[in-house]
Design a protein that fits this description.
11 strands; alpha/beta; about 10% strand; 3 domains; 15 helices
Length: about 450
């Protein structure tokens, strides 16, 4: 099967790593079930404030260049794609499953920019017109509601033949703000909490030795974005100083952009080390593992990487305004401290709870593999139909009879897929309804065949 992971890059590497982690899970699951898949990626840079740095970020992510579909310009194709200045030009046909990851609110504005031929996010988008044109789904109005997923798939299908609502899956950001059932069309609402499919907790890289500057030191780690408020950083520093006052002096490793914003760079018993980050994954894992329990982070993907490495950390999560709901969930279920906590400054640090109950691999695999296998079986149906229609040495009666049976089979598969797509994310229920075994075979097992209840002979 050919699978495309489509990602709108909003800046930085978080969205890229989201797509990469999802690709790793898909590859692993299909390998375990002996399903042959070919994975490709497409990255949209329309909303990226620094699109010229995309090649470097993609290279650092480890995604291979020959896996990346190079998208065309808006003005040339008049569709939702901005230029991706990196990748291999590939045919945009032949994909069997489309994974939109993460499906942020940027997805819902792409058709507007595409339709008006706007090149960058700073360009003005015209408001709703009094007279609707032939493509009214570009507008949002109370009079005419089109689902977000329907809007996305409609425009996606203009560039990738075969894209439809039945083979396009939307993976949300972690704990999206607009999270009510009536306001989203996510097939996989990601995050922590009831009704969520968990977060990416990737396999921790092999730990190497510490950077020379940290060897023999006791140190805490700050790994936050440029937007981190100084007050929050100072609160963390004071907590480190108070918690580990019996072992002072203590060092704090932090990015240059955080150090440069600090008003007070000289604190008794605290040594700031600003020239170490960023690090390669193996070195960063070593720093996380050897650091003091206190650790402060911003990136959603960093949360999963830290949990994968060590569940004994006391995490301070400094979220952005659009990740406030995720921060609240981390606080509730994992004892994580955020700068908006109102119940004290001492997080409980129960990250093992998140790793045990909200690992994406265990919560999402049953549903995803059920969809993938049903989609694959539908492809077999289409191939059989094509072969029957091309057969010359059969009577019209037999041909019509076989095609009618295929039609019944297609209808049953569509019903199964529709049910699987919209079933609630309850892990045990998903396991009971969608756990297929393919040991020793490249095709779905007998249970799926019985449910589809079809036969050509």
């Amino acid at each position: 099967m050919n699978i495309l992971i489509y990602c709108v890059v909003l800046g930085g590497s978080g969205d890229i790593m989201f797509a990469k982690h999802l690709g790793k899970y898909v590859t692993k699951w299909c390998s375990e079930d002996e399903i042959d898949v070919k994975l490709s990626y497409a990255f949209n840079t329309l909303f990226d404030p620094d699109p010229n740095s995309l090649p470097k970020r993609l290279n650092n992510s480890g995604i291979k260049k020959d896996q990346i579909v190079k998208l065309k310009s808006l003005h040339k194709s008049v569709n939702m794609h901005a230029i991706t200045p990196y990748g291999t030009t590939k045919s945009k046909h032949g994909f069997d499953l489309f994974l939109l990851a993460p499906a942020t609110t940027a997805f819902y504005r792409l058709p507007e920019y595409a339709y008006y031929g706007l090149e960058r996010v700073t360009d003005r988008v015209p408001g709703p017109a009094d007279k609707r044109d032939s493509r009214p789904w570009h507008y949002y109005s109370d009079e005419m509601y089109v689902s977000k997923k329907g809007l996305i798939v409609d425009d996606l299908s203009r560039s990738f033949s075969g894209a439809s609502s039945s083979n396009t899956l939307l993976f949300s950001v972690y704990n999206p703000e607009d999270d009510s059932d009536e306001n989203n069309d996510f097939d996989f609402p990601m995050g922590v909490g009831e009704g969520k499919f968990g977060i990416f907790i990737p396999r921790a890289p092999q730990v190497t030795e510490l950077p020379r500057e940290l060897q023999g030191k006791r140190f805490a780690l700050i790994y936050v974005s440029k937007n981190a408020p100084e007050a929050c950083v100072n609160e963390f520093v004071n907590s480190v100083r108070e918690t580990y006052k019996h072992m002072l002096p203590v060092s704090i490793v932090l990015p240059n952009h955080v150090y440069n914003k600090l008003t007070n760079k000289s604190i008794d018993g605290i040594e700031f080390l600003p020239n170490i980050l960023p690090l390669k994954p193996d070195k960063f894992a070593a720093v996380v593992k050897c650091s003091l329990p206190h650790i402060m982070t911003t990136g959603n993907q960093s949360v999963g990487e830290i949990i994968a490495c060590c569940t004994d950390k006391i995490m301070w999560y400094q979220g952005e305004t659009w990740t406030a709901a995720f921060g609240d969930a981390l606080k509730k279920y994992g004892g994580v401290y955020t700068c908006t906590n109102e119940d004290g400054k001492n997080p409980t640090g129960n990250l093992l709870e998140i790793k045990t109950h909200y690992d994406f691999e265990h919560r999402a695999k049953p549903k995803f593999m059920a969809i993938l296998k049903t989609t694959r079986e539908a492809l077999y149906v289409a191939k059989d139909r094509e072969q029957i229609e091309e057969m010359q040495n059969i009577s019209d009666y037999d041909r019509q009879n076989w095609l009618e049976k295929l039609g019944n089979k297609e209808g049953e598969l569509h019903r199964i897929m529709k049910n699987v797509f919209h079933q609630p994310p309850n892990t045990e229920r998903l396991r009971r309804r969608a756990s297929f075994s393919t040991a020793g075979s490249n095709r779905p097992d007998e249970r799926l065949r019985r449910r589809a209840s079809y036969s050509l002979g």
